[in-house]
Design brief:
This protein has about 100 residues and is an all-alpha fold. Helices cover about 55% and strands about 0% of the residues. The protein contains 3 helices and no strands. Helix 2 packs antiparallel against helix 3.
Length: about 100
């Protein structure tokens, strides 16, 4: 059984301060480009996660406000508020990673 060669690509945490300052959107040519008629550019998984976190934040915030205004047990509005806070934290983390230029 053969093993694949080790991955020698550097992670964003391994970049020097110079590389982070001069390549804020990632190091050029870090991913292969295909000729015309080849596969298109892949969409970033971070972009999808950013969109889902935004959707979750909006939905949970609206539900939390409606739950606080309605006559329901206090557990429901608190639970939805906690979910909204989690979505907000995820939104901030993903936005910071995208600003650093992380691929994916």
């Amino acid at each position: 059984m053969s093993t694949s060669p080790p991955d020698d690509r550097r992670t964003p945490d391994d970049l020097t301060e110079y590389e982070r300052d001069h390549f804020p959107h990632g190091i050029p040519e870090s991913q292969p480009r295909y000729q015309e008629g080849g596969a298109g550019n892949a969409r970033s998984a971070l972009t999808l996660r950013l969109a889902l976190a935004t959707f979750g934040l909006v939905v949970c915030a609206v539900l939390a406000v409606l739950a606080f205004l309605a006559d329901v047990p206090l557990v429901l509005p608190i639970a939805v508020t906690v979910l909204a806070v989690i979505a907000l934290v995820d939104l901030v983390v993903v936005a910071r990673r995208k600003l650093r230029g992380e691929p994916g």
